[in-house]
Specification:
This protein is an alpha/beta fold. The protein contains 11 helices and 6 strands. Helices cover 46% and strands 11% of the residues.
Length: 216
């Protein structure tokens, strides 16, 4: 079974949250640092809010922080771009009869908005939200849970993700890992190349020649 991350893997959306974070911090005169980034990147919303509240010593509740983030993100997910080669690769996989699902730390509202607008929902049998599972993608228990819920062995799953932490979590769950380049995580590229079973700059690298695709 193929398991796809969404933000930074299927769609070019990581910049949305970088802009949201910068604006949120700018309003409070707090600099956007690597330490802050490491605390909120690719984690579930409630834990990111908890980290932000403690790290920035804010009086706002976690609920108020999350509400402001949602306000700042607005409807940007309705206008986000699909990454190169994604649509063709998903179509190729569907033609091959592969089972596919999305595993994301994204907010459900944003995820469904983006996948619906880009007409990608039809390729996936399920969307697994880390928020609903109460686990982060760096935790192998999340990946084990996804495999169990899908009725497959972890060893029979391949994940596609731009986050090194998520890839490490999936590997601990005995899954095959394909790392996907995204400029948001460019600083991890060398380690990703060494760690992942396969590392791609674009899904275009995984496309069969046109002649073979025509026969599938």
């Amino acid at each position: 079974m193929f398991l796809f991350d969404m933000d930074g893997t299927l769609i070019d959306s990581n910049r949305i949250w970088k802009n949201v974070d910068r604006t949120f911090l700018d309003r409070r005169g707090i600099p956007y640092t690597r330490e802050y980034y490491n605390g909120v990147a690719h984690t579930i919303f409630p834990l990111a809010a908890k980290f932000t509240k403690e790290f920035c010593h804010l009086e706002e509740s976690c609920e108020e922080i999350m509400s402001e983030w949602m306000e700042l993100a607005g409807d940007m997910y309705a206008h986000v771009a699909i990454k190169p080669g994604v649509r063709a690769y998903l179509k190729q996989c569907k033609n091959e009869g592969r089972r596919m699902a999305v595993v994301t730390s994204s907010v459900p509202q944003h995820c469904r908005m983006a996948l619906d607008k880009l007409d990608l929902l039809k390729y996936f049998e399920e969307i697994y939200f880390a928020h609903d599972l109460g686990l982060e993608k760096r935790d192998p228990a999340l990946w084990a849970s996804v495999a169990e819920r899908s009725g497959v062995r972890s060893e029979d799953c391949t994940i596609f993700d731009d986050s090194l932490a998520a890839c490490q979590g999936a590997r601990l769950a005995k899954m095959r890992v394909i790392g996907v380049y995204d400029s948001f995580f460019a600083h991890d590229q060398q380690e990703m190349e060494q760690f992942c079973d396969v590392y791609i700059k674009s899904f275009e690298e995984l496309l069969l020649p046109i002649e073979k695709r025509k026969h599938n």
